[in-house]
Design goal:
Rossmann fold; single chain; binds thiamine diphosphate; alpha/beta; 643 residues; seven-stranded mixed β-sheet
Length: 643
């Protein structure tokens, strides 16, 4: 069905939603095919959420046929499935070709990227609440636009989605919710609601009803007294079954299940929902990865894929010699500790693969829990387990743990329960951008009593920290970055690290750099450079613990060294450097500190960590320049005083 290279494609002629509406219905399958080709080509090169987007091609086309953004509003949950929406709203061409790269389209929707993106997201479960807010605002303002929330089935494992569902009918009479049910979260969707949805979509009765409703609606021209027709249909198709739907119990009119790849059925259902005078939920069944065989057979791998061969689906192989990822080392260590101690448990919020917990799930399924996209519950669940002598380990990305802040303070730390938190993706998640960067965890944890907060300099120390945390009397938080470690050899037996003790890696008399985690190797390079080029004696300390901080070592060094430098992969506000400043201030120690870290800004997405660091003044040369300038300033101040 593809067009020849010389012929302009239908997609290339879509400058905005009006062009989607102008196509004849018979042209839509070709448009869908061209979109799929574009999605595969771009994500094969750049990586990205190929599976979710391949599954919503027809749904997104149908949405743009029936509604008119930006007047009407679409709120996509997570918004990782928003690529098709981007292609249909004027963002194709070079901008989309550079998807997730510097200067290209974000991998998520963002209000500052397009007026067609009514709400930005990257974290799951936010669409229904936000859409309900928009619909209520519309009602309060007496305007008439439509608001459509597009939620995946896994969004219904999130507490916030259920909180919003509980408030729909009391807030508005007009809201359209699309439940995009592909049975997958990143891994297979879990929990009772997933089971319920599965029963609806596989039930013979519901499937018969689904055919009935499709036949029923398609037998009428669009827009003709649809409400009256609906009531007629309900009378004719066993009312009691529809009434028993979970969503009807929450006061939403339930439509479906609808075949999410049947454009005609989708359009008819959306047209109907548009006219309803009650909130409506359309249950749409889609196939994640549709159009790419490898993605259909491996939905988890192709949820968010790294670059792959578009013909075979094979991942582009990592450069030989690349050290193992932090999360793989963590996953192997946790499985090992869990084998040795049945009280050690692993908990994930729908991320078994990304966190490295898949190994534990495979080897010791009884010690593994996937609780769905439910970080608040994950942490409280762990707290409950900890009260009974278990040693739960919550493996949650730094950015997603933000959601469980109250549980961290109120349930875990206040009761000093021994829960270990392994916060992956601390630092940048370059291609994903601001919703996914883990740049705030030190600030939000450093102020919580009883929390022990640490970051390893390499993957061997990560294993030591996990081992140490599993022996703490209270909560332990370990942060580590995305991707490859340093290649450090893992000791055969981990050691217990003395809590609150830093490690001196290099002695210096002019400057001492206090570095945290993945900044330690950078600090060692910087020290060598300053010694070589500036003839300075520069020490390096691997801080290990942000809380408790090694005050004794810090103060003893600050008493004799003219300049301290801190380096962290975290925002400066409230971070590691702030902890150092506070400790010095409390001891009335005036030693100056040059703090290196991320500024008080949301950091955009970009092609690589190095690219983003350079854009924010954190390239190695820039850091060296700042440190040298500070040193020279101090020397000239000293010279002035000496005069
Ligand atoms: C709070 C939070 N936790 C975890 C994630 C990671 N995550 C991104 S998409 C996703 C699964 C989404 O599944 P679903 O909503 O069903 O959409 P699908 O990709 O299947 O279309 C998860 C767990 C997240 N984005 N936000």
């Amino acid at each position: 069905m593809s067009t020849s290279p010389s012929e302009p494609t239908l997609l290339s002629r879509i400058a905005g939603p009006a062009d989607v509406k102008a196509l004849a219905p018979g042209q839509l399958p070709q448009l869908a095919q061209e979109i799929r080709e574009e999605l595969i080509e771009v994500t094969a090169r750049n990586g990205g959420h190929v599976g979710p987007n391949l599954g919503v091609v027809e749904l997104t086309i149908a949405l743009h046929r029936v509604f008119s953004t930006p007047d009407d509003q679409f709120v996509f949950d997570v918004s990782h499935q928003g690529y098709v929406h981007k292609l249909l709203t004027g963002r194709q061409g070079e901008f989309f070709q550079k998807l997730r790269k510097s200067g290209g389209a974000s991998g998520f929707l963002a209000r500052n990227e397009s007026p067609h993106d009514s709400f930005g997201a990257g974290h799951a479960g936010t669409a229904l609440s936000a859409a309900l807010g928009m619909a209520t605002a519309r009602d309060l303002r007496n305007s008439h636009e439509h608001v459509v929330a597009i939620c995946g089935d896994a969004a219904f494992t999130c507490g916030i989605t259920l909180e919003a569902l509980n408030n729909v009918v009391s807030s508005t009479k007009r809201l359209i919710v699309i439940l995009n049910d592909n049975e997958w979260s990143i891994a297979k969707n879990v929990g009772a609601i997933a089971g319920y949805l599965n029963r609806i979509s596989t039930s013979k009765t519901y499937n018969r009803m689904h055919h009935d409703i499709e036949a029923f609606f398609t037998s009428f021209p669009t827009g003709v007294e649809m409400n009256r027709m609906y009531h007629k249909w309900k009378r004719e198709t066993k009312d009691f079954i529809v009434e028993s739907s979970l969503f009807e119990k929450f006061g939403l009119r339930y439509l479906g299940p609808v075949d999410g790849h049947n454009l005609d059925a989708l359009v008819k259902n959306l047209e109907f929902a548009k006219q309803c005078d009650v909130p409506v939920l359309i249950h749409v069944l889609t196939k994640k990865g549709k159009g790419l065989d490898a993605a259909v057979s491996s939905p988890e791998k192709f949820h968010g894929a790294s670059p792959f061969d578009p013909e075979t689906g094979e991942s582009v192989r990592p450069i030989p010699g690349t050290p193992p990822n932090y999360q793989d080392v963590f996953g192997a260590a946790l499985a090992r500790f869990a084998r040795q101690d049945p009280k050690v448990l692993g908990i994930t919020g729908a991320m078994p693969g990304g966190t490295g917990l898949s190994l534990l799930a495979k080897e010791l399924p009884q010690q593994f829990f996937d609780v769905g996209i439910a970080e608040e519950h994950a942490v409280l669940f762990a707290a409950g387990l900890a009260t009974k002598g278990f040693r739960p380990v919550c493996a949650i990305y730094s950015t997603f743990l933000q959601r469980a802040y109250d549980q961290i303070i109120h349930d875990v730390c206040l009761q000093n329960l021994p829960v270990t938190f392994c916060m992956d993706r601390a630092g940048l998640s370059a291609n994903d951008g601001p919703t996914h960067h883990g740049l705030f965890d030190l600030s939000y944890l450093r102020c919580v009593p009883n929390a022990v907060v640490m970051q390893p300099k390499d993957e061997d120390e990560l294993v030591d920290m996990l081992h140490t945390s599993l022996h703490l009397p209270g909560p332990g938080f370990i942060r580590y970055p995305r991707g490859a470690g340093t290649g450090a050899a893992i000791k055969s037996d981990p050691v217990l690290l003395p809590v609150g003790q830093a490690e001196v890696l290099r002695v210096g008399t002019n400057i001492v750099i206090w570095a945290l985690g993945n900044m330690v190797p950078e600090a060692l390079k910087l020290a060598a450079q300053l010694e070589r080029d500036e003839h300075l004696s520069v020490g390096v300390v691997n801080a290990r613990f942000v809380k408790p901080l090694d005050r004794n070592l810090l103060l003893s060094q600050a008493a004799v060294v003219p300049l301290l430098v801190t380096m962290e992969d975290h925002v400066l506000a409230g971070g590691f450097g702030s902890a150092v400043l506070e400790a010095l201030q409390e001891a009335h120690c005036p030693t100056p500190v040059e703090r290196i870290g991320w500024p008080d800004k949301f950091v955009e997405h970009g092609s690589s960590v190095d690219y983003l660091r350079a854009g924010h003044g954190l390239a190695p040369d820039e850091i060296a320049r700042r440190v040298i300038a500070r040193w020279r300033d101090l020397q000239s101040e000293k010279a002035t005083v000496d005069l």
